[in-house]
Each structure stands twice: as structure tokens, then as C-alpha cells.
């Protein structure tokens, strides 16, 4: 037979079984339906704790857990860390009684390297944690070990493989049949390749966790569990410096985020259906609020739900379900050789596996002793020194510390190739951070086959931006390492974005909204990975014509907001002769844009829109940033993912040659966001594209270059010349007809560099769009700033605090900048404050326009952001349909259409209410909307 | 749960209650708690940091800050590492126990705030850097290791021992007893640019500003930038000196002093002016067209961004200069001179390199005179200036004093 035992399920239990069995000399095959630790193990709180609450009704479980925790910490010291814990004591709590109970837990503490409890006064507790409520009367401390559950699982599998086991993920078991007594036939299908295989084994271990009953059913045996769902939410960083617990709800600092749980609800359905619910997040937050009043303001980045495969004990109190485990031998069900391992807690995995493999040994007639408690897990053989690693490989210390926390003594192996290729130190994930070397290592040696697999191995995409910065970077490395697959690259990216979205959607709120907007603008608006067919109703004001021109001498227009809409409004008002002041708190969202000025294909532009764009494009031309394109003749540009973006107007440097041309795609070594071989392959369908990587002279370190670093270097004459010669040689040798760079051809000297190279190489040179920050966006913002100065618009830094009004006439706009406050007199004001990124719309316990409380439409039933979301990331989200309601002229108005103020306009993303799902950005719409408001505000009155 | 378990647990709890009398002291108190968890790098936050947490969490990883950061620009192709403002916000600052791991990429930040000024969500990155440096200093003590640059440790030691950042005995300034204003000189002027501040004082006298100096110590401003947010000891001494002079109105020519005295919670009840603001209030007393040739102005970070004051110096220059030319990256987006954040002491070459870059921008305007109003900017520019550079550098008030013949020395222009 092929193997001695097949283990079904690649969570911590299955991994533990595979390791133990392989170490005892059995031939093992492990099959995991999705990815390792993607089920219950991946949704847990990441703790190797004893379990304070089980002390009351399951004390043996607590004791065993403490023992096993100590063992696991010994096997993989680099993976585990200690989390101090505070339990605040509220008025009426019997501190002495709690202490006495805690003293019991203290007796077990040394087993898991924990310290005994400490009693703190209220004042002392608040020195440790200033955010604690004024109500508390003291706090009891303890601590628990934390662990990265994904790494723990993978290390067990690596160990299993080292002892000869075969390990497969994305391998779904489709049939289990007993073909003879004690002979099992298992059929599986690879989800990514479609390949099917069949095996025959004498023994099958069902370690599928909450899916175990379904796997058992495939084999025709009964198995009953008492499953409960647990939902946790994550904050983007350590929001407290210790864990804080209120009853069963705690927030704990964990690696670089903070976890918060738990819930415990009966869940008999298929675990695939388990979803975190907004109500559960609300329950967690409101419980914690008692101890940490400000916890609601913290940034929630994710919610996750898992199902605990608890065993069924008739008569159990549903609030006190046992955590005992069980190895079920289904011989009594007529299925000899089929075992199920259920119940337990993650910390007991090794013990559960030992009992299961004891049984396997007995079944196979080859009993052997268990040694899993003796041999360290991979990387746990010795303690690694991050400082030495950092110095040896030229890595920043923080990256070394994080790498060691995942790979321990083997971190050096991960970094090995950095010696020859120092650019592999480049961070693909900036938040955690995760180097390219580690990502490639995970693909080669740790069975990472999708972006989500990479996320579990390396924490890529688990930071505050949840994939915004890293998805595009990582897919290039993944595809290069793994080679072709069933899934095309765009599907890989979509699948990962969807997976990340699933975790955000139920808890989308507050600070996370700005991130959402950026993520959608880049991956949907620029890269076009959304769903086509957007139903969007333009605001009425976008189609309102203007009356014949009238000069606006003596009128003073104050524009709030420095994005495209605000700038267009300012230029428009100025063009009629009004005095214009533009107030902005930073640069405005323009600097974040891709540089493309999109217009929806299905919306015919009216005369005002045409005039608006003409005005803006002329201003850009005069400011030294020419644009190309036209109505009804959209242009195409390449993106960092090698996709083609269509836009009405593009920077002159960003258009593309004709289809079929021989295109040289140039990448820069150390520029993580543009991978030339990847882009060339992606464009291979439309062009004869080939990659070239150049190393820039003048950089001491060849990694983690930003596009601005590259752009500034290229502006140095000697660098421009040297690179020009190197690329020129390649152009001539390959007979290329065109050259594509990322958006790095100088910050301001783009035209000069392009002209010089085009002259030298004899072929046109283009820039791609994409990435963040985008040099195109920067250039656009700087050019518009020059245009504002040239037009005589006064630009002042500041945040608008409100308006002074007489009746329904705005008289002044109140602004603040650092320590200064001012009232800007105004004949008219234009609110172009953007959407979530600029703070034009905010979620403060409900969606609002935060300064003037302007009336909003599109809120639907509730004002909470998570109620306005849809399951698929790429489809139109009603959240992005929320906008300020305006009258036909573009003034914020109530439900009857009455404007709040006669001389207050609103413009831009704030009034458009348009999502990015169909691949169209808001650029030209913002310009049209802003210019309209500017022309109206300047001439004043109603016509 | 069985009866036996219940009895067993109850018995154990009772025993604990009784035996608890004996073991009690071992399990009490903050010191015990902190000591137990020092190996885990337990680093409590301050109440201010807890308040600022949502502002720090706002980062959306857009990277505009890294596009803007003048330190990153200077480090390109040079020695030294800075993680960059984006990494600080989205990565380095997320796990407090690992703050010590940021020590190799955090100390070249000058806390200039250019990043914050372009941040679309307004993350206060300089405060985040200061907070991380505080955590690193605490963990340095726990680990008995060297994370903090020697120059920063020395700076804090100097403040403790001598009351100024240089650890020197600084010659006092002439006193007047009681006056309407106190002129607060500040360490940097007293040590680096005595002639310049003497000229400033001469100008103030000429404008009939009734002021006296006091027996001052460092305002405390540099301390939070190098990891020590508590400046109460220094503040008490200064406040006592102000009281003795009988006034709560303070003028200073150092933007960092102005910012600290007007906003740090250790100082209360003061009315603070920067000299640029004082001059702007007395324009009619200044003759028009005092300046010679074309003049440009470098906005000190702490004046333009810290205090938000960019108008006052320009009002003065509108009166005093014949030709005024703006530098690139001016006003609230001014480029750092490289002098802030303890960088001058710990990474002097980088600091002067940044000053050089700024001087080049001034040279590019064609102006013969570069003016600023800050001792650190002034000193750094003078260090970076080469003899053949076609620009002279002065503080604004110093230059006007020289042009009025109020102080020894020629006001040269090229």
C-alpha cells in the first residue's frame, strides 16, 4: 500500500499527528482541503494557556494544558511569547476571593513559565494601563503564553516532512471507501491543478476539526460533536501594553496586532458557513468598554470566526462545555482502521496526537514510543540572535526580530540568498515587515501556493493596510517562484483581496474607512479588478448648465479642500475674477491619485464638463505637465500589475504603443513595487514584451527603494547617462520598438529624461501607472499647485472648523492651523473636502460630514458603515454611494431640496457618491464638479 | 462537575484564603509587577500616548510621507538608515515590546514634521518617533544594552547636570531686573550664536521693547525628542525665574523654545512670542527697504509647522526687503535644515548634508542673502556654507540690526 496512514486535516491536530506518526517511522500522507491552519486553528486566539475558567469545571484539562504549554514552549521557544494580563476589579468585586482563586492557578503557573499573580491598586493599574476606567478599584494580574498558530502548524508539518511524510495542501478528499476489511481507499482532488489521485491505506486519521463529522460521513461512519463558534476581532496594533480582561472578553497584544475575544455560540451547521457577525463585534467592544472606555476609537482591521470541535457529552451545561479530547476508534462502527480525533484545545494538540498515534501503532501492529516532546521543532534547536542576523545580512533589526520569531535558529537559511541578491531584502509587506527572501522561501519550502497561503506563513497582508501595499508586490514573487497554475494572476489577486475583505466587512468602521477607499481606488479603480456594470446615479448638479458668464469682481470665494475638485473650483472661480482662498490640511488626495483622469464611459460629458477639463488641462500644460487624451478617444496605460488601464486623459508619459509592438519592460533592482519579468509576462498577450532589470548606480543599499528614490536618482545627470547607455544597448540588441518603465522618470524632469532617452534610443519611452505613493500623483499635485500660484489663488494650510453665517448666508469660514486660528471672510464657500481619506466623510459612531453636519443621502436603513457593505469586494459597495445631498446647483440641501446656505457649495468625491468597482476613477468627475461649483460660487446668486 | 471536585476546589480556595496571609506581600504592588515582566519588555504608555493612539492608527500606508521626507532624500546613496515615516507609523510602532528593535533605524529622524504636513489623515509622526524613543530608552535600561545614541544620552546628562544641552557653563546675559517681557535666550543661541542673539536683542531695544533676560536653564524642548518627555525639573526653575522677574510674557528667537514654552504642559500661564511675531507687530518702527539686494527666507520647521507661523516673517520681509524670492519647499512645507531631533549631535555629517541641500535651494533662487529666525538653522547653515557660496546667512532680526548699525559687524550681501 502507498502509505501506512492518511491524515485528513491540516490544522494543528492533523499536523501533530503527522509529525508523531512520521517520527515513529510510519509512512504518512497528510491531506488538507484548503491550506494548513486555515480552519479552526487559524481563527483561534493564538494562546497556549491553561484556561482559568476551566479550573472550575474541567480542572484536569487546565492542568494538562499547562503541562503541554510548557512542553511546546520548549520545542519552539522562538514562536512563543509571554503576555501579561490584567483583570480589573470593579466595585463590589471581592478581591480577596478572586485572589484565592487565582492562587490555584498560580500553582500551575511554573509549568508554563508564567508568573504568580500580582494585586495592583487602581492607581497602580492605571500606571500600567492609562486607558483603564476610573471606576475600577484595582486589578489582578497573571500572564499567558502566546503563539503564532500558523507557524506552529507549519513547523509540525516541516518536521513531519523531514521524517519522510508527504504533505499536501489544497487537496480535497472527495471519497473514502472501505474496499476490504481494514483497507481504505481515499480519493483526493487538487483544487489548484484539478488533478485527482487515489490512495490505499490501512489506517485513516480524521483530524478535520469541526469538519470531522462530514469527513466521517464520507467514510460512512457516524460522528457527533457539540461545535461552538468563536469570533474574534483584531486591532491594527497593540492598543494596550498588557492584556485586559472583562469576564470572558479580553483584548491581548499579540505579535504586532491586538486580538480580542471571545464568543462561544452553538454552531451545528457546516463550518464553511461560520461568519463573524457585526453584533458579535459590538458585544466584544461594549463588554471591553467597561474597562477601557476609549476602546471603540481603536482601529479594528479584521474579524474572524472559527468553530471549536468540542466533544458531545450528553447533559453538559451549554455554558460549560468540556474541552476534553477524544480519539474515537470507529472499529465499533464497522470501520476498523478509521480514527477520529476531536475535542480539545490547541495547546493539547501534541497530547491528542500522541494518543491518536498510539492507537495507529496498535492498529498497524507496530507500536513505537512517542518522542514528540523530546525533539525540538524546526528552528527551535537553539536561540537565534536577531542582532547578529541583522548585521550579517544587512537587514534592519526589526525585520530580523520578526523573522526570528517565525523561523528561529533557521532564519539564516531563509536569508541565505540575500548574499548574492541583496535586493531580496526588499520588503514585500511594509506593515509587518516581510522580506522578499522570506516570501520566496515560503513558496519553495513551506507549500505556499496562493497569496493567502503566504499570508499564513509570513504574516504578509495582516497589518493595518490588509494587503493594500503588498498584494501587487507579493503576487509577482509568488508567480515567479511557483510557475503557472490553474488560476491566472488576476484571479490570484482577486481571491486574496476577497479573502482580506471578508475579514474587514463585518467590522468596517472608523479609521478603517480611509484605508478602504485607497484600497478600492488602487485595485479596482486603477488595476480594474472589480466587476463591470456599475449602476450609479449622478448627482443632479453634475448636469446643471451654467447661465451666461458674468464677472465676479469683488467676490471672495473660500474653497475648503486641496484635491482635484477643490483646485478646479479655485481655478474656475479665479477665472471669473473672484478673489480665491484655498484652504487645505495637507496636500489633498490628488497626490495619492494614479495621475489618470477618468471619465465614466456611459456618461456623455456636457458642455460644462468639457469646459472644466479644458481649463484644467490647459493649466497643467502651462505648469509643465502636459496631458493627452480626449472625449470619446480614451487612452491606455500599463499598470504595475501589467494590466491595461483606460482613461479619458493621461499624463503624456503614460500612454502605450500599439498592440503587438516589441516592448522592453525595465525594472529597477530593489524597487519592490514593479517587477519587470512579471509585468512583461502579464503584457505578453498584447505585446511582444521582454524584461530587463537595471541596477542604479549611486545607491549604497540595493533594497527597499521607493519610486521617489529612483526618480531622484535618475534626475542626476551621471545616473541618467549611465542608465541610458545600459538600456540603450539592450534596446538595440533586442530590436525593441518601445520601452516601458515604472513611474520613476524623474520627479519633475520627466520630459527632459524622456526626450534625452528617446533621442538616444530612437524609440518612444513610456511610464506605467500604479503603486503607492505614485510619482504621477505627486507631479499632478505639484503642477496644480504651480497653476494655483500662477492664477493668483491664495493657498493656506488649515482645517475648517465651521462657518459663521447670518441667516442662510455664509459670511466667513473658520479655520485652524496648529496654534493659529482665523476667520476667512467669504462671499461664497465651496466644500470640497473629499470622502474618507480627506475626512470629508467620517464614521464617528455613525456616518457624518464631520464639520458642518451636511445632510447625507444613500445611508439606507442605518448610518453604520458595515451595514452598507456587500459580500463581494469587487462589487459596488453602497458605502461608497453615500454622499452629501445637493440641490440642482450643487449646494448642500435638505430632503426638500432647500439649500442649507444660499452661498455654500459642495463638490468632488463628497457629492459624487461613486464607487471604483467598474475600473473608473473619479478624476475628471471631480474636476467637472469642482469647476461647476467654482463658476457658480463666483458669480453668486441663483439663476 | 462532581461533588468531589467541588469539595476539592472549595478546600483549596479556603486553604488559599488562610495561607494567603503569609504569601501576601510577594504578590503586591507595581514594582513587583514591573519587575516580573521586565524581561518581556513590558513598556507602559503615558496618558498622552494613549490619547494619541487613534491619531497614530490612522495611517493608510499611502507613502506620501516617504516621498516628502528630507532625511530619506539625504540618505539616498549615503550611510545611515532611516526606516522612514511610513515604516514608523505602519510598522515600527505597532508592537511596543519590540520598540528596542527599532533603534537602528529611528535616530536619524529630525522630527521636522514635513511628513505630517502632507499626510492625508494627519498622523502626528514626530510625536510617534518621540514616543518610540521613550520606549527604547526604557528598554535600554531593562536590557542593560546600548540602543540610544551616545550623543543623546550625553544631551540628557548635560541637562541634568548643567541645565543646558551642551553641558557647558554658559556666560550670562545682561539683566534688567523687572521689565514687561522676558527675553528667553535658549541654549543654542548662548552657545553657538552669541553675536547673532546679541544683535537681536539690540534690535528689540531699538524698537523699545522693554525686556530683561533671566537666569534661565534649557526650556526642556530637546528632551522629548531624544526619549525623555519629563521636563518638569527644568520648567520649575524657569518658571521661578520668570516669577522673580515679575512677568509672564516671554519673547524668544528660538522656535523650539517658543513652542515648548507655549505648548508643553509643564509650562502654564505664559504668553509667548517668537521674535518674528514681535517684529511683525512693530512694522511701522522699521524703515522700509532695509535689505540689500534679493533676499530669501528659510522657514524653521518649528516656526512654520510647530507654531503654524509663516505670515509674520513675510510681513516683516515685505517691509524690509526690496526683492523677496521664495525658496522651493517653503512655508508649511519647508525642508528641514537637518538640525532637529538630536540628529546634529548623533549624526553630524548627515545634519550638515541636509543643511547643504537647503543652502543649494537658497542659492538656486539667486538671492544674495538667506534669512531665517532660528539658532539651529542658522548654525547649521553656517556650518554647511562654503567660502565661495554666493549667499550670506543671517537670522532675520540679526540682519535688520546689522543693517541699522545697531551691532558690530557688516551685514554682507553678495
Features of the shown structure:
heterodimer; A: 943 residues; alpha/beta; nine-stranded mixed β-sheet; six-stranded mixed β-sheet; 26 helices; B: 414 residues; Fumarate Reductase Iron-sulfur Protein, Chain B, domain 2; Rossmann fold; 3 domains; four-stranded parallel β-sheet; 21 helices; globular
Summary of the model, kept short:
The complex is a heterodimer of chains A (943) and B (414). Chain A is an alpha/beta fold and 943 residues long.
Topology at a glance:
The complex is a heterodimer of chains A (943) and B (414).
Chain A: E1 5-8, H1 12-23, E2 28-31, H2 54-57, H3 59-75, E3 80-89, H4 95-108, E4 118-121, H5 122-128, E5 138-147, H6 149-162, E6 166-168, E7 171-180, E8 183-190, E9 196-201, E10 203-206, H7 212-218, E11 228-235, E12 243-246, E13 249-254, E14 257-261, E15 265-266, H8 278-289, E16 300-308, E17 325-329, E18 338-343, H9 349-364, H10 386-393, H11 397-407, H12 411-415, E19 427-429, E20 434-435, H13 436-445, H14 451-458, H15 471-482, H16 489-504, H17 512-526, E21 556-560, H18 564-575, E22 579-584, H19 607-622, E23 627-629, E24 635-638, E25 644-647, E26 649-651, E27 662-668, H20 676-683, E28 688-694, H21 707-714, H22 717-734, E29 738-741, H23 750-761, E30 765-767, H24 775-791, E31 794-797, E32 799-806, E33 809-817, E34 820-825, E35 828-831, E36 842-843, E37 847-848, E38 856-857, E39 883-884, E40 904-906, H25 909-912, H26 923-939
Parallel strand pairs in A: 1-2, 1-10, 2-6, 3-12, 10-18, 21-22, 21-35, 22-31, 27-28, 27-29, 29-30, 35-40
Antiparallel strand pairs in A: 3-5, 4-5, 7-8, 8-9, 11-14, 11-15, 11-16, 12-13, 13-14, 17-18, 19-20, 23-26, 24-25, 32-33, 33-34, 36-37, 38-39
Helix pairs in contact in A: 1-6, 1-9, 10-11, 13-15, 15-16, 18-24, 18-26, 19-26, 22-23
Chain B: H1 3-23, H2 30-37, H3 47-57, H4 64-68, H5 70-75, H6 85-92, H7 114-118, H8 125-143, H9 150-162, E1 181-184, H10 187-192, H11 194-206, E2 211-212, H12 222-225, H13 232-245, E3 249-252, H14 255-263, E4 271-274, H15 275-280, E5 294-297, H16 301-306, H17 311-320, E6 323-325, H18 343-346, H19 348-364, E7 369-372, H20 375-384, E8 392-395, H21 396-403
Parallel strand pairs in B: 1-2, 1-3, 3-4, 5-6, 5-7, 7-8
Helix pairs in contact in B: 6-8, 11-21, 19-20
Amino acid at each position: 500500500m502507498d502509505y501506512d496512514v492518511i491524515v485528513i486535516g491540516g490544522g494543528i491536530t492533523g499536523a501533530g499527528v503527522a509529525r508523531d506518526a512520521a517520527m515513529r517511522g510510519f509512512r504518512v500522507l497528510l491531506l488538507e482541503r484548503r491550506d494548513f491552519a486555515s480552519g479552526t486553528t487559524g481563527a483561534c486566539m493564538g494562546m497556549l494557556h491553561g484556561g482559568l475558567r476551566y479550573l472550575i469545571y474541567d480542572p484536569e484539562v487546565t492542568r494538562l494544558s499547562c503541562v503541554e504549554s510548557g512542553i511546546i514552549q520548549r520545542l519552539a521557544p522562538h514562536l512563543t511569547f509571554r503576555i501579561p494580563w490584567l483583570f480589573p476589579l470593579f466595585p463590589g468585586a471581592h478581591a480577596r476571593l478572586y485572589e484565592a482563586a487565582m492562587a490555584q492557578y498560580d500553582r500551575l503557573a511554573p509549568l508554563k513559565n508564567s508568573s504568580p499573580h500580582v494585586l495592583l491598586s487602581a492607581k497602580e493599574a492605571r500606571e500600567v494601563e492609562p486607558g483603564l476606567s476610573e471606576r475600577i478599584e484595582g486589578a489582578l494580574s497573571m500572564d499567558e503564553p502566546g503563539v503564532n498558530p500558523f507557524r506552529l502548524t507549519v513547523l509540525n508539518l516541516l518536521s513531519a516532512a523531514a521524517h519522510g511524510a508527504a504533505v499536501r495542501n489544497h487537496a480535497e478528499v472527495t471519497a473514502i471507501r472501505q474496499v476490504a476489511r481494514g483497507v481504505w481507499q481515499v480519493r483526493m482532488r487538487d483544487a489548484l491543478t484539478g488533478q485527482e489521485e487515489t490512495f490505499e491505506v490501512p489506517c485513516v486519521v480524521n483530524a478535520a476539526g469541526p469538519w470531522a463529522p462530514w469527513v466521517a460521513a464520507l467514510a460512512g461512519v457516524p460522528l457527533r460533536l457539540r461545535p461552538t463558534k468563536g469570533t474574534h476581532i483584531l486591532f491594527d496594533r497593540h492598543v494596550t501594553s498588557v492584556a485586559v480582561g472583562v469576564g470572558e472578553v479580553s483584548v491581548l497584544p499579540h505579535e504586532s496586532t491586538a486580538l480580542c475575544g471571545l464568543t462561544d455560540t452553538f454552531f451545528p451547521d457546516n463550518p464553511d458557513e461560520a461568519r463573524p457577525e457585526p453584533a458579535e463585534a459590538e458585544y466584544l467592544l461594549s463588554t471591553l468598554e467597561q474597562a477601557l472606555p476609549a476602546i471603540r476609537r481603536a482601529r479594528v482591521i479584521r474579524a474572524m470566526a472559527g468553530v471549536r470541535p468540542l466533544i458531545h457529552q450528553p447533559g453538559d451545561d451549554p455554558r460549560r462545555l468540556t474541552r476534553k479530547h477524544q480519539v474515537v476508534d470507529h472499529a465499533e462502527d464497522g470501520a476498523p482502521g478509521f480514527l477520529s480525533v476531536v475535542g480539545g484545545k490547541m495547546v493539547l494538540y501534541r497530547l491528542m496526537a500522541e494518543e491518536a498515534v498510539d492507537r495507529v501503532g496498535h492498529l498497524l501492529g507496530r507500536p513505537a514510543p512517542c518522542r514528540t516532546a523530546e525533539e525540538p521543532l524546526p528552528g527551535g534547536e537553539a536561540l537565534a540572535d536577531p542582532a547578529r542576523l541583522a548585521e550579517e545580512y544587512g537587514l534592519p533589526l526589526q525585520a530580523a526580530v520578526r523573522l526570528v520569531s517565525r523561523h528561529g535558529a533557521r532564519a539564516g537559511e531563509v536569508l541565505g540568498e540575500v548574499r548574492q541578491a541583496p535586493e531580496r531584502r526588499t520588503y514585500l509587506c511594509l506593515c509587518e515587515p516581510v522580506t522578499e527572501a522570506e516570501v520566496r522561501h515560503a513558496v519553495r519550502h513551506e507549500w505556499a501556493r496562493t497569496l493567502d497561503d503566504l499570508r499564513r506563513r509570513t504574516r504578509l497582508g495582516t497589518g493595518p493596510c490588509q494587503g493594500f501595499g503588498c498584494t501587487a508586490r507579493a503576487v509577482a514573487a509568488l508567480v515567479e517562484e511557483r510557475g503557472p497554475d490553474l488560476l491566472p494572476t488576476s484571479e490570484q489577486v482577486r481571491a486574496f483581496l476577497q479573502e482580506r475583505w471578508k475579514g474587514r466587512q463585518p467590522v468596517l468602521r472608523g479609521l478603517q474607512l480611509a484605508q478602504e477607499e485607497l484600497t478600492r481606488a488602487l485595485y479596482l479603480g486603477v488595476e480594474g479588478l472589480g466587476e463591470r456594470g456599475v449602476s450609479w446615479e449622478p448627482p443632479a448638479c453634475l448636469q446643471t448648465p451654467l447661465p451666461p458668464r458674468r464677472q465676479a469682481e469683488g467676490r471672495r470665494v473660500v474653497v475648503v479642500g486641496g484635491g482635484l475638485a477643490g483646485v478646479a473650483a479655485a481655478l474656475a472661480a479665479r477665472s471669473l475674477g473672484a478673489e480665491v482662498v484655498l484652504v487645505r490640511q495637507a496636500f489633498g488626495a490628488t497626490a495619492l491619485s494614479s495621475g489618470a483622469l477618468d471619465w465614466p464611459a456611459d456618461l456623455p460629458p456636457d458642455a460644462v464638463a468639457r469646459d472644466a477639463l479644458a481649463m484644467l488641462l490647459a493649466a497643467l500644460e502651462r505648469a509643465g505637465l502636459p496631458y493627452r487624451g480626449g472625449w470619446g478617444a480614451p487612452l491606455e496605460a500599463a499598470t504595475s500589475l501589467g494590466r491595461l488601464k483606460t482613461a479619458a486623459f493621461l499624463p503624456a508619459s503614460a500612454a502605450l504603443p500599439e498592440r503587438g509592438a516589441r516592448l522592453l519592460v525595465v525594472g529597477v533592482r530593489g524597487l519592490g513595487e514593479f517587477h519587470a519579468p512579471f509585468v512583461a509576462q502579464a503584457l505578453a498577450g498584447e505585446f511582444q514584451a521582454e524584461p530587463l532589470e537595471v541596477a542604479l548606480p549611486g545607491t549604497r543599499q540595493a533594497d527597499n527603494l521607493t519610486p521617489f528614490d529612483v526618480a531622484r536618482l535618475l534626475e542626476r545627470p551621471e545616473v541618467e547617462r549611465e542608465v541610458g547607455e545600459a538600456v540603450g544597448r539592450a534596446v538595440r540588441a533586442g530590436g525593441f520598438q518601445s520601452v516601458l518603465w515604472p513611474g520613476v522618470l524623474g520627479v519633475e524632469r520627466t520630459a527632459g529624461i524622456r526626450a534625452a532617452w528617446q533621442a538616444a534610443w530612437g524609440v518612444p519611452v513610456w511610464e506605467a501607472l500604479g503603486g503607492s505613493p505614485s510619482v504621477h500623483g505627486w507631479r499632478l499635485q505639484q503642477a496644480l499647485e504651480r497653476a494655483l500660484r500662477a492664477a493668483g489663488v491664495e493657498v493656506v494650510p488649515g482645517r475648517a472648523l465651521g462657518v459663521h453665517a447670518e441667516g442662510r448666508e455664509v459670511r466667513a469660514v473658520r479655520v485652524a492651523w496648529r496654534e493659529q486660528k482665523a476667520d476667512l471672510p467669504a462671499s461664497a464657500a465651496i466644500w470640497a473636502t473629499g470622502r474618507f481619506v480627506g475626512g470629508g466623510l467620517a464614521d464617528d459612531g455613525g456616518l457624518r460630514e464631520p464639520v458642518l453636519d451636511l445632510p447625507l443621502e444613500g445611508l439606507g436603513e442605518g448610518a453604520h458603515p458595515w451595514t452598507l457593505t456587500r459580500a463581494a469586494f469587487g462589487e459596488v459597495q453602497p458605502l461608497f454611494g453615500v454622499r452629501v445631498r445637493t440641490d440642482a446647483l450643487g449646494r448642500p440641501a435638505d430632503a426638500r431640496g432647500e439649500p442649507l446656505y444660499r452661498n455654500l457649495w459642495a463638490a468632488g468625491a463628497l457629492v459624487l457618491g461613486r464607487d471604483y468597482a467598474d475600473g473608473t476613477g473619479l478624476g475628471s468627475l471631480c474636476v467637472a464638479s469642482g469647476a461647476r461649483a467654482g463658476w457658480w460660487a463666483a458669480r453668486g446668486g441663483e439663476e | 462537575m462532581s461533588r468531589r471536585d467541588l469539595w476539592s476546589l472549595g478546600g483549596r480556595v479556603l486553604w488559599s484564603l488562610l495561607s494567603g496571609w503569609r504569601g501576601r506581600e510577594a504578590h503586591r504592588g507595581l514594582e513587583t509587577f514591573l519587575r516580573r515582566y521586565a524581561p518581556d519588555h513590558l513598556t507602559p504608555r503615558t496618558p498622552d500616548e494613549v490619547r494619541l493612539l487613534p491619531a497614530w492608527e490612522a495611517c493608510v500606508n499611502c507613502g506620501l510621507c516617504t516621498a516628502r521626507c528630507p532625511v530619506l532624500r539625504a540618505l539616498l546613496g549615503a550611510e545611515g538608515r532611516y526606516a522612514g515615516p511610513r515604516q514608523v507609523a505602519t510598522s515600527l510602532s505597532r508592537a511596543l515590546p519590540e520598540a528596542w528593535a527599532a533603534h537602528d533605524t529611528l535616530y536619524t529622524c529630525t522630527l521636522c514634521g514635513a511628513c505630517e504636513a502632507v499626510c492625508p489623515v494627519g498622523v502626528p509622526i514626530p510625536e510617534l518617533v518621540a514616543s518610540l524613543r521613550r520606549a527604547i530608552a526604557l528598554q535600554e535600561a531593562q536590557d542593560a544594552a546600548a540602543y540610544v545614541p551616545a550623543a543623546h544620552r550625553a544631551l540628557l546628562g548635560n541637562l541634568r547636570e548643567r541645565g543646558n544641552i551642551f553641558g557647558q557653563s554658559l556666560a550670562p546675559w545682561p539683566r534688567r531686573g523687572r521689565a514687561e517681557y522676558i527675553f528667553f535666550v535658549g541654549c543654542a543661541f548662548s552657545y553657538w550664536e552669541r553675536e547673532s542673539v546679541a544683535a537681536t536683542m539690540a534690535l528689540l531695544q531699538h524698537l523699545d521693547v522693554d525686556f530683561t533676560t533671566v537666569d534661565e536653564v534649557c526650556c526642556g524642548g530637546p528632551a522629548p525628542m531624544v526619549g525623555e518627555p519629563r521636563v518638569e525639573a527644568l520648567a520649575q526653575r524657569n518658571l521661578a525665574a520668570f516669577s522673580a522677574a515679575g512677568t509672564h510674557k516671554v519673547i524668544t528667537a528660538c522656535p523650539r523654545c517658543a513652542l515648548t514654552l507655549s505648548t508643553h504642559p509643564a509650562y502654564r500661564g505664559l504668553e509667548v512670542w517668537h521674535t518674528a511675531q514681535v517684529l511683525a507687530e512693530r512694522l511701522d518702527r522699521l524703515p522700509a527697504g532695509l535689505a540689500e539686494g534679493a533676499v530669501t527666507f528659510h522657514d524653521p520647521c518649528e516656526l512654520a509647522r510647530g507654531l503654524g507661523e509663516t505670515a509674520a516673517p513675510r510681513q516683516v520681509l515685505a517691509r524690509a526687503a526690496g526683492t523677496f524670492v521664495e525658496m522651493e519647499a517653503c512655508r508649511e512645507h519647508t525642508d528641514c535644515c537637518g538640525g532637529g531631533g538630536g540628529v546634529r549631535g548623533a549624526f553630524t555629517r548627515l545634519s550638515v548634508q541636509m543643511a547643504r541641500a537647503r543652502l543649494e535651494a537658497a542659492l538656486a533662487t539667486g538671492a544674495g542673502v538667506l534669512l531665517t529666525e532660528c539658532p539651529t538653522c542658522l548654525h547649521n547653515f553656517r556650518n554647511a556654507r562654503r567660502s565661495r557660496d554666493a549667499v550670506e546667512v543671517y537670522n532675520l532680526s540679526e540682519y535688520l540690526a546689522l543693517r541699522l548699525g545697531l551691532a558690530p559687524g557688516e551685514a554682507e550681501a553678495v
